[in-house]
TrEMBL record:
The chain crosses the membrane at residues 111-132, 180-202. Signal peptide: none annotated. This is Cytochrome P450. The keyword Plastid does not apply. It comes from Macrophomina phaseolina (strain MS6). The keyword Glycosyltransferase does not apply. Belongs to the cytochrome P450 family. GO terms for molecular function: heme binding; iron ion binding; monooxygenase activity; oxidoreductase activity, acting on paired donors, with incorporation or reduction of molecular oxygen. It holds the Pfam family p450. Heme binds at residue 323. Its cofactor is heme.
Length: 382
């Protein structure tokens, strides 16, 4: 998912840009916490009744990108209906999901999106694209790259363009608007998928849920900074990402002109060949993960060095194109998972089957979860 002259794949890299470095993440932390608080309050108001957790976690992730990418309150949680409007342009969670399905089908065919861009988009995908474009234009109107200090990802993008010494290397206006699509899709849909699945796994595993609660209760507070010290929470997250990686099939790459040779068996792949490693398959390979590779067992990550380049674990890809928003995603995942399991007891709603949810996910470029209907009860109440 990229545009030919996009700077999202380069400027957003932590070593090259400023919008996702540690100081920026520290600025984003209170905004993420505010949205977590909004989510918990909304769920508390719905205790005792069946709620679709898949949708509510998606509302959360969408609102986080509003605060972090645009320093704007989208208000999807407060609305509770999966819709949002900016400058008179409206979109919805369903439009986002429809867009992801199109990317899942036609993403490897780059000329397709150029074609539909020329003849005009239709349906929910068009609605979503137009909304993203308008959101970036809104930011361009309100942010002065010369005199204002960037406070979010989009303002860093705008400032980077303004500061570019070579005018020929600056993005086109359309490319800037298309970056807005990438920010919303990559920043919201992937985190929501992992959070929902982690809560599902913990709900059906009371022993590991109790272990996690005990470790969180021992913290001096439940700030996002403190939660980052709970290794077992990260093990839960990583095990979820192993079993349910956000990008099931992985991202495509093109081999260099001279081709490449696979070290293990000497297989030669010619230059200019499109290749991909599907994380779903790699993460469940018993040669790497043992005979229980299909099982949820967070303890398998104890003592594992995640920086090891040979580790068969690539939920955020690897190398120069690793996901620049990885640390932001971990911040979101730690915060929401801990808040939900510490504040609520969850049971599956009547008619909600474990197997139907666990095996009902779809590949829509990113992992698309089916509804997860649960009944929430505040912890400590009868």
């Amino acid at each position: 998912m990229k545009s030919s002259d996009s700077i999202v794949s380069s400027m957003l890299q932590p070593e090259q840009g400023d919008c996702l470095h540690q100081d920026a993440l520290a600025d984003y932390e209170p905004r993420v916490q505010e949205v977590i608080n909004d989510l918990i309050q909304a769920l508390k108001a719905r205790t005792g009744s069946s709620v679709n957790l898949t949708d509510w976690i998606s509302f959360f992730a969408f609102d986080v990108m509003g605060r972090v990418a645009y320093n704007h309150e989208f208000g999807m949680i407060k609305d509770g209906k999966g819709t949002v409007s900016v400058e008179g342009k409206a979109t919805s969670l369903e439009a986002l999901r429809a867009t992801m399905k199109m990317y899942g089908i036609f993403g490897p065919v780059p000329w397709f999106f150029k074609m539909i861009g020329q003849i005009g988009l239709v349906g929910e995908m068009a609605i979503f694209f137009q909304w993203c474009h308008e959101t970036m234009r809104m930011k361009q109107k309100s942010f002065d790259p010369v005199n204002d200090t960037p406070t979010d990802i989009s303002s860093w993008i705008i400032k980077s363009q303004s500061d570019a010494s070579d005018i020929n290397k600056r993005q086109t206006q359309r490319s800037m608007e298309n970056d807005s699509i990438l920010l919303i899709l990559a920043g919201s849909d992937t985190a929501a998928s992992a959070i929902t699945n982690a809560i599902f796994y913990l709900t059906r595993d009371p022993d590991r849920l109790a272990k996690l609660r005990t470790l969180i209760e021992a913290l001096p507070d439940r700030s996002l900074k403190s939660l980052a010290t709970v290794r077992y929470l990260d093990h839960v997250i990583n095990e979820t990402l192993r079993l349910k990686p956000p990008a099931i099939e992985g991202l495509v790459r093109e081999t260099p002109a001279g081709g490449i040779t696979i070290p293990n068996d000497g297989t030669f792949i010619p230059g200019g060949t499109t290749v991909s490693i599907p994380p779903w398959t790699l993460h469940r390979d018993t040669r790497f993960w043992g005979e229980d590779a299909e099982e949820f067992r967070p303890e398998r990550f104890e003592g594992v060095d995640l920086t090891n380049e040979t580790l068969p674990f690539i939920p955020f890809t690897r190398g120069s194109y690793t996901c620049p928003g990885k640390q932001l995603a971990y911040m979101e995942m730690r915060g929401v998972i801990s808040a939900v399991v510490m504040d609520f007891d969850l049971t599956l709603s009547e008619g909600q089957g474990e197997k139907e949810f666990d095996e009902g996910c779809k590949d829509s470029f990113t992992l698309e979860n089916p509804p997860l209907n649960v009944v929430l009860k505040k912890r400590g109440t009868e």
